[in-house]
Amino acid sequence: MTTTEAVTGAVLDNTCCSSTNTGVDAETARELATAFKALGDPTRVQLLALVAAHTESEACVCDLTAPVGLSQPTVSHHLKILVDNGLLTREQRGRWAYYRLADGTLPELARKLTSVISVD
After folding, report:
1. HTH arsR-type domain: which residues (predicted)?
2. What topology does CATH give the domain 3-116?
């Protein structure tokens, strides 16, 4: 089986073996790629973990700058990418923005990934 067949689930009639793997549909592949692109920067992975570990899984941008050692504008830029990709939510309270994990997003991402990647 070729790599393409393993990923798409397509098996040509003239191949020597068939696959029971149904592959991944284009929409799921796009969703996973988008989420992993957002997580493709180590700083964003750190920020996601910091928000998750914070009291009530909510953190102000002012609480996140020191742990990652970056300026507030840089941290805000990374947080915006996580919000835009549905991994965090943002709530403005006066001068400060508070971030929390988007409900169900990470478990759903993990579920989708494990449904398309099977390791025997």
Report:
1. 24-120
2. Arc Repressor Mutant, subunit A (1.10.10)
Distance between terminal CA atoms of the chain?
15
C-alpha span between 99 and 62 (Å, rounded): 11
Backbone dihedral angles phi then psi of residue 4, each to the nearest 5 degrees: -60, -45
Span 19-69, pLDDT tens digits: 555 678 899 889 889 999 999 999 999 999 999 999 888 999 999 999 999
pTM score, whole prediction:
0.75
